[in-house]
From TrEMBL:
Gene3D superfamilies reported in the protein's UniProt record: 2.30.30.140, 3.40.630.30, N-acetyl transferase-like (3.30.60.60), Winged helix-like DNA-binding domain superfamily/Winged helix DNA-binding domain (1.10.10.10)
A single GO BP: DNA repair
The protein's role, per its UniProt record: Catalytic component of the NuA4 histone acetyltransferase (HAT) complex which is involved in epigenetic transcriptional activation of selected genes principally by acetylation of nucleosomal histones H4, H3, H2B, H2A and H2A variant H2A.Z. Acetylates histone H4 to form H4K5ac, H4K8ac, H4K12ac and H4K16ac, histone H3 to form H3K14ac, and histone H2A to form H2AK4ac and H2AK7ac. The NuA4 complex is involved in the DNA damage response and is required for chromosome segregation. The NuA4 complex plays a direct role in repair of DNA double-strand breaks (DSBs) through homologous recombination.
Source taxonomy: Eukaryota, Fungi, Fungi incertae sedis, Mucoromycota, Mucoromycotina
Protein name per UniProt: histone acetyltransferase
PROSITE patterns: MYST_HAT (PS51726)
Active site annotation, chain numbering: E329 (proton donor/acceptor)
Keyword entries, A-Z: Acetylation, Activator, Acyltransferase, Chromatin regulator, DNA damage, DNA repair, Metal-binding, Nucleus, Transcription, Transcription regulation, Transferase, Zinc, Zinc-finger
Organism in which the protein naturally occurs: Mucor saturninus
Main location group: nucleus
Keyword Methyltransferase: no
Length: 439
C-alpha cells in the first residue's frame, strides 16, 4: 500500500473506537464477525467492492449501496473513490471522500473466478467469435451505436465545463485528449466548440475566433430560434468537437471521429452576440432502417424548457418534407425515451382530436404525422387507447389523456415552442451511390 493509503487506514481505524461486529446466521447457529478487519482489505483493493456510501441529495443525505469503480490520491482532498450507486443512473456517479464510506456494515468483496482451461477446439471457437465481434465493431461508424461494456464502465474524466455563461456538470466519460483528463473545468468556445484547459486560453481564442454560428446553412428561422444543417464531411473538426461535447451527456452512445456519413441539425438561440447552441440531432445520409435521427441531445443548460420537443418535432418536419415516415435509432437513452414518448402521445392525440373520423386508421395517422406505425401502436398501447370491441381493435381516448394533452398544449402556447412549417427553407438532399461510396 502507498503512504497515503497507510495514513488513511490509520485514521479510519482510529475512528472505529469499538470493534465492529455483526451477527451472521449459519447452519450451526449465529456467529459474530469482526467488521473492523474488512477495512484494511478494502483499502488495499477497493475496486469492484460494494458498500454503503453517504449520498448527498436535495433533501439532505442518505446511505445507498454503491460500487467502487476507481480510486485516486489528490493533494487537495486526499484519497477519493469513484462510486456508482446501485439502481441509479450513471450520471450520478461521483468522487467521494473516505469519510462518506460506511464501514459499520459488511462490505461486498468481488468474487474471484478460477478460470478452467478449455479444450483446444473450444479455444479456437472463442477466438474466432471474438475476432468476428471485433471486426463488426471496427466496421461500425454510426453516430449512436450502443457502446461496449468496457466503454460504459469508464470513469468520468471531467467534472464540469464552462460554455458561454453556463457552467455545466459533466455526466459521463468523453474521450477528450489526455491532457484535459481529470481537470476541474474544461473551457469550451460556444461557437466553434474548441476546448481549452484554462479561461485565459479561451479568452485569447475568443479574440481570434470569427465564428458566431454553426458552420452550415441556416434552413429555419422563427423569431430567435434557428436551425443549421452541417455536413459532417465538409466540417469534420466542428462536428468532431460536437461529438466530444455530446459524449459528456450521453452514456449509451458511441460517438466516433468518423462523422462523414452524417448530417447534423443544430438548433440555436440568437442574441446580439451570435447564435448559441441549444441542442442538435444527427442523421445518416443514407439509412437502411429509415431512421430520421441517429443521435439527439439538448444541452443540460437548456433542458426542461421545451427545446427537446422542438428538436424532435423538427426531425419529423424534415421527414414530412422527404415524404417518408421516420423513427429514432434505438436504443434511446432514458431521457430520450421519455421525450419521444411524450411527443408521440401529444402528436397522435392532437391528430385524433382534430382530424379523426370513424374510419381513421393507424396507417392514416402515420401518413399524416410521419411517425411509424410501430411507434404509433406502442404509444396508443402505453396510454390505454387501443381497445378490442366487437371483434376488432378500436382507438378510444380516455378523459385523463385528453386533459393531459390540453394542459401540455397550453404550456407550449405560453413558451411558443412550436415548429412553423412555412419557415422551413429546405429540400431533401439526395446522395448518389458514387457519393455515398466515399463516405
Amino acid at each position: 500500500m502507498t503512504a497515503a493509503m497507510n495514513e488513511h487506514l490509520s485514521s479510519t481505524t482510529e475512528r472505529i473506537e469499538q470493534p465492529l461486529q455483526t451477527d451472521v446466521t449459519a447452519s450451526s447457529g449465529t456467529t459474530q464477525v469482526d467488521l473492523s478487519s474488512q477495512v484494511p482489505v478494502f483499502l488495499a483493493a477497493p475496486v469492484n467492492c460494494k458498500l454503503f456510501v453517504n449520498k448527498l441529495t436535495a433533501q439532505g443525505s442518505e446511505y445507498r449501496l454503491a460500487e467502487i469503480l476507481s480510486s485516486r490520491d489528490t493533494a487537495a482532498h486526499g484519497l477519493e473513490y469513484y462510486v456508482h450507486y446501485t439502481e441509479f443512473n450513471k450520471r450520478l456517479d461521483e468522487w467521494v471522500s473516505v469519510e462518506r464510506l460506511d464501514f459499520s456494515r459488511p462490505i461486498q468483496f468481488p468474487t474471484r473466478l478460477t478460470q478452467i482451461p478449455a479444450r483446444e477446439h473450444e479455444e479456437k471457437t472463442e477466438q474466432n467469435t471474438f475476432s468476428k465481434d471485433r471486426e463488426i465493431e471496427n466496421l461500425r461508424t454510426s453516430g449512436s451505436m450502443t457502446q461496449s461494456i468496457q466503454e460504459i464502465a469508464r470513469v468520468k474524466n471531467l467534472n464540469k465545463i464552462q460554455m458561454g455563461r453556463h457552467e455545466v456538470e459533466a455526466w459521463y466519460f468523453s474521450p477528450y485528449p489526455m491532457e484535459y483528463a481529470h481537470s476541474d473545468t474544461l473551457y469550451i468556445c460556444e461557437f466553434c466548440l474548441s476546448h481549452y484547459i484554462s479561461s485565459r486560453q479561451l479568452s485569447r481564442h475568443r479574440g481570434r475566433c470569427q465564428l458566431h454560428h454553426p458552420p452550415g446553412n441556416e434552413i429555419y428561422r422563427n423569431e430567435e430560434i434557428s436551425f443549421f444543417e452541417i455536413d459532417g464531411r465538409k466540417q469534420k473538426v466542428w462536428c468532431r468537437n460536437l461529438c466530444l461535447l455530446s459524449k459528456l451527456f450521453l452514456d449509451h452512445k458511441t460517438l466516433y471521429y468518423d462523422v462523414d456519413p452524417f448530417l447534423f441539425y443544430c438548433m440555436t438561440e440568437r442574441d446580439e452576440s451570435g447564435y448559441h447552441l441549444i441542442g442538435y440531432f444527427s442523421k445518416e445520409k443514407e439509412s437502411s432502417e429509415s431512421y430520421n435521427v441517429a443521435c439527439i441531445l439538448t444541452l443540460p443548460q437548456y433542458q426542461r424548457l421545451g427545446y427537446g420537443r422542438l428538436l424532435i418535432a423538427f426531425s419529423y418536419e424534415l421527414s414530412k418534407a422527404e415524404g417518408r415516415c421516420g423513427s429514432p435509432e434505438k436504443p434511446l437513452s432514458d431521457l430520450g425515451y421519455l421525450s419521444y414518448r411524450a411527443f408521440w402521445t401529444e402528436t397522435i392525440v392532437e391528430f385524433l382530436l382534430s382530424n379523426a373520423t370513424e374510419e381513421t386508421t393507424i396507417e392514416e395517422i402515420s401518413h399524416r404525422t410521419s411517425i411509424t406505425t410501430t411507434d404509433i401502436e406502442l404509444t396508443l398501447s402505453s396510454i390505454g387507447a387501443l381497445k378490442y370491441y366487437r371483434g376488432q381493435n378500436i382507438i378510444c381516448l380516455g378523459d385523463k389523456v385528453v386533459e393531459q394533452w390540453e394542459r401540455n398544449y397550453e404550456k407550449r402556447k405560453l413558451r411558443n415552442r412550436t415548429i412553423v412549417p412555412e419557415k422551413l427553407d429546405w429540400k431533401p438532399i439526395h446522395f448518389t451511390p458514387s457519393q455515398l461510396r466515399f463516405l
